[in-house]
């Protein structure tokens, strides 16, 4: 394999494909446009890096994306780190990954403060009454879009349905569902060759990219390098957690959140919506940090800000710490909880990329990875569908009931407690997304305005 071709590299450091200053400007511009979830974020990077600037080739870009989709956590941010690493080495990956989440983190922090300061007012209540139905429609659209792209064979449809039933009906732990899907995808590929191949869509126009499709990064994997990255990464990851435990107490909510979200960072495969299914269950039902409806509120706010949707974990950490601040002032607790949760959620992304990317560079045509990815992607369709059901139950109905019968663990709505306004606004949001092809952000804005007006009028 040959290294990526360098053009216009005047002023770069050794190993830089483009000047670091130019790359930083590009990543900052991308960070301000990353609305609409991982699909929209990946599309922004595709347009900017592949189509417009021609810094990386299409198949090369997809190869990096395939690896990121195999990892736990937000694949769009990991793709930014990977691409930044390809273009400018470790420093480039750090800049790309930090800028990708920074605007959204600051915006969501401001919205969390607004929510906690005025959460009981009619205006804020109406705002969320409009946002929650729009979130349902957005998640349903995600099921449709991911399913249309991923479920190309009967085996994959079976995996999606089985994953949905395992989560929504039998209460199988989320990590086991994803692990089983990857193993089944890898196994089924022996008899279904189509599962071993992921194709790029269409050809490419324009000049050759700086990093072409046959490019190979100069960094070579080694045991020494891997041990050094793991050691440094763990120190960076857990030092703030140890400080929180030493200063605020081992039993504080800050340590509980840090340990939970650190664990979630390594088991939540399948992107933001899949992460939310797991986080919502644990944060609401196990730890009691939030009420069920508040998880929908957090997702609605995360949908309106740039950056990964998994930033909703910052919302969970901030709200929970505000209500149980320990020795801190509630507002100081909210700030510490928000920042600490964000830290342990996103630092692992850098560790996964810097550790694994050199190996992945040398596994360009490994069909086993592709087959496992295909199975996991199919399972994610079922995971997102289970999330849509969860949000629907707690938005469209004011009460639910649990039915336990042997291995079954169903949460069902109380039909008399249905909310006609929420049903109507959900239908409107679905019509705007599917019928009018509105963007998620525009749909959220319209539904929020309807909810706000309705609350003020009533």
TrEMBL record:
Ranges that cross the membrane: 94-117, 123-144, 156-186, 226-247, 259-280, 331-357, 369-397, 417-435
Signal peptide: none
UniProt keyword list: Cell membrane, Membrane, Transmembrane, Transmembrane helix
Pfam families: Chromate_transp
Compartment(s) where it occurs, according to its Swiss-Prot or TrEMBL record: Cell membrane
Bilayer topology annotation: Multi-pass membrane protein
Entry's family note: Belongs to the chromate ion transporter (CHR) (TC 2.A.51) family.
Protein name: Chromate efflux transporter
Annotated organism of origin: Nocardioides endophyticus
Organism lineage: Bacteria, Bacillati, Actinomycetota, Actinomycetes, Propionibacteriales
Gene: chrA
